[in-house]
C-alpha cells in the first residue's frame, strides 16, 4: 500500500499543474482562482509581471495576458510546498468577481503549456496523496462546504478528527493479530510459558471493541440521516387527506386535492426543513383494491416509498371507514402492513367527528400515540408538526461523546468490521489461524475508512463527487 501511495504521489508530482475557480460562481464581489503544482510560482510571476513573492505573504498586483492586455488589479499569494493545502507549490489570485474578469483569467491560465483545468476534488485529492489530510478529513471538508443546515455543519466539524479515534482501534487489532501470529509460529513455547490466559485476554479485549464498533454502526446510521436528510412518507387508503396534509406541511399547494379516489397516482416528493434538518416528504398513492394499471403502479411505488422512508405517517379518516370497529381495524391493518419503520398514527378529518367518537378511538387503542387533525380547520396541525419534529430528532440525535461517521461507505465498512470481530470471537478457541485472519480483515476495513488502505477506483469515485476548485 505504501508503495502504491508513493507511485501515485510520484505521478502527481510529474503531472501538470492544475487551476480552477475555487470560490462561488460569478458575478461576485471577489473571486478566488487557485493554482497547484510545480508551475505555480512561475505562472504567478508571468501573469503579475512581478518576480518577488514571499511564502504566505499577500501582495497587490496587476494581472496581464501574455499579449500585454490588463485583465484586472487585485491580490495574489504564493504558498511554497509542502506548507500549502495540497502540499505542493500553490498560488491564489483574488480578483473582482465579474464574469469577464474570471473568464479571461481562466482562459489565460489555460494558455500555459504545463497548466490544465482541475477536475472535481482534484486539489483535495492531491492533499490526500501528499499526506495533508486523510480520507475522512477530506470527506468532512467536502461536507462542510456543502452543509445546508446547522446539524450538517456540526456533523462535518465533528468528523474532522475521526481518524484520531479510529487509529488506536486499528493499532490494537494489528497488535492482537501479531500476537496470534506469534502463537502460530511459536505455539508450544508460548503455551508453556503463559498457558491459555493470553487467548482469554485477547478475546475479552476484542469483545470490548465489538461494543465500540456496534455503537459506531448505530451513530453512523444517524449521521447518514443528518447528512443526506430524513424521508417521511404519508401512507393510507384513498381519500384520507394525504395530499391536503402534504400541502399543510409544505405551507403551500404542491399536491392536487380531489374528492375522486385514486387522484394521486405517483409519489410526489417535497423537500422541507424540519428540526434544523433536511426532510423529504412523500405524498403517496392511496392503497386500495383496483384493476386500473396506472393506479396499481402508483400503489407499487407507495410500498417502495414506505420501504425507503425513515418515518411513516399512517393516515386514517374515520369518517371514511365508520363504524368504530372498522376504524380500529384500519389502524391495526396499517401498523401490521409496515411493521419495522417508526411511525406516527394520524387521524384526519376530525372536524367530521363527534368528540365522543374521538374519545372512543383513544380508549380503544390506549397504547398508541395518535395525532388528531383537520386539514380543513387546521385543528391539530401545529401539534402534528411538533410531533414529527420530535420523531426526526429521535432518529438523528447524536451524543457529544459518540464517534460519528456519516456516509454509506462508512456504514458498509463498519458493518464488515463488526462481522469480522464477531467471527473472531467464534474462531479464537477453534482455529487460531482463522481468528488471526479475522483480525487482519477488520484492521483492513478500518484502514479503508481513513484511507490508510484504499483502492484507486474508490478514491476516484469519491473525489469526483467533490466541488471543482476544492
TrEMBL record:
Record's signal peptide: 1-20
Keyword terms: GTP-binding, Nucleotide-binding, Signal, tRNA processing
Residue span, MnmE helical domain: 135-467
Subcellular location: Mitochondrion
Single biological process term from Gene Ontology: tRNA methylation
Transmembrane segments: none
InterPro entries linked to this entry: G_TrmE, GTP-bd, GTP-bd_TrmE_N, GTPase_MnmE, MnmE_dom2, MnmE_helical, P-loop_NTPase, Small_GTP-bd
Family assignment from sequence similarity: Belongs to the TRAFAC class TrmE-Era-EngA-EngB-Septin-like GTPase superfamily. TrmE GTPase family.
Protein name: (pine wood nematode) hypothetical protein
Organism: Bursaphelenchus xylophilus
Amino acid at each position: 500500500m505504501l508503495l502504491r501511495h508513493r507511485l501515485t504521489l510520484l505521478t502527481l508530482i510529474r503531472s501538470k499543474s492544475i487551476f480552477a475557480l475555487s470560490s462561488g460562481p460569478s458575478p461576485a464581489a471577489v473571486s478566488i482562482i487557485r493554482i497547484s503544482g510545480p508551475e505555480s510560482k512561475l505562472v504567478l510571476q508571468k501573469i503579475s509581471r512581478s518576480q518577488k513573492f514571499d511564502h504566505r505573504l499577500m501582495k497587490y498586483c496587476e494581472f496581464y495576458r501574455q499579449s500585454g492586455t490588463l485583465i484586472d488589479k487585485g491580490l495574489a499569494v504564493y504558498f511554497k510546498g509542502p506548507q500549502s493545502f495540497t502540499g505542493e507549490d500553490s498560488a491564489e489570485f483574488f480578483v473582482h468577481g465579474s464574469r469577464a474578469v474570471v473568464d479571461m483569467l481562466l482562459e489565460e491560465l489555460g494558455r500555459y503549456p504545463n497548466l490544465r483545468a482541475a477536475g472535481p476534488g482534484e486539489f483535495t485529492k492531491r492533499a490526500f496523496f501528499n499526506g495533508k489530510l486523510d480520507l475522512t478529513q477530506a470527506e468532512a471538508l467536502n461536507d462542510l462546504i456543502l452543509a445546508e443546515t446547522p446539524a450538517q455543519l456540526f456533523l462535518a466539524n465533528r468528523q474532522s478528527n475521526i481518524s484520531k479515534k479510529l487509529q488506536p482501534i486499528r493499532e490494537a487489532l494489528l497488535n492482537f493479530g501479531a500476537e496470534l501470529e506469534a502463537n502460530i509460529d511459536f505455539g508450544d513455547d508460548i503455551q508453556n510459558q503463559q498457558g491459555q490466559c493470553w487467548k482469554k485476554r485477547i478475546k475479552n479485549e476484542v469483545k470490548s471493541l465489538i461494543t465500540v464498533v456496534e455503537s459506531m454502526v448505530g451513530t453512523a446510521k444517524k449521521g447518514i440521516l443528518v447528512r443526506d436528510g430524513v424521508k417521511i412518507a404519508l401512507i393510507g387508503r384513498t381519500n384520507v387527506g394525504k395530499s391536503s396534509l402534504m400541502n399543510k406541511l409544505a405551507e403551500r399547494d404542491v399536491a392536487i386535492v380531489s374528492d375522486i379516489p385514486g387522484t394521486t397516482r405517483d409519489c410526489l416528493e417535497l423537500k422541507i426543513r424540519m428540526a434544523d434538518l433536511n426532510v423529504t416528504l412523500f405524498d403517496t398513492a392511496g392503497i386500495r383494491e383496483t384493476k386500473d394499471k396506472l393506479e396499481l403502479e402508483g400503489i407499487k411505488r407507495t410500498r417502495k416509498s414506505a420501504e425507503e422512508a425513515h418515518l411513516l405517517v399512517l393516515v386514517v379518516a374515520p369518517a371514511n371507514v365508520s363504524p368504530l370497529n372498522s376504524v380500529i381495524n384500519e389502524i391495526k391493518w396499517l401498523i401490521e402492513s409496515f411493521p419495522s419503520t417508526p411511525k406516527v398514527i394520524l387521524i384526519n378529518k376530525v372536524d367530521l367527528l363527534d368528540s365522543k367518537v374521538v374519545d372512543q378511538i383513544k380508549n380503544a387503542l390506549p397504547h398508541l400515540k395518535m395525532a388528531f387533525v383537520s386539514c380543513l380547520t387546521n385543528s391539530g396541525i401545529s401539534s402534528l408538526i411538533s410531533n414529527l419534529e420530535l420523531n426526526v430528532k429521535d432518529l438523528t440525535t447524536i451524543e457529544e461523546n459518540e464517534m460519528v461517521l456519516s456516509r454509506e461507505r462508512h456504514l458498509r465498512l463498519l458493518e464488515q468490521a463488526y462481522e469480522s470481530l464477531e467471527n473472531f470471537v467464534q474462531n479464537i478457541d477453534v482455529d487460531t489461524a482463522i481468528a488471526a485472519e479475522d483480525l487482519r480483515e477488520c484492521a483492513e476495513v478500518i484502514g479503508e475508512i481513513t484511507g490508510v488502505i484504499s483502492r484507486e477506483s474508490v478514491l476516484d469515485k469519491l473525489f469526483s463527487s467533490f466541488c471543482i476548485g476544492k
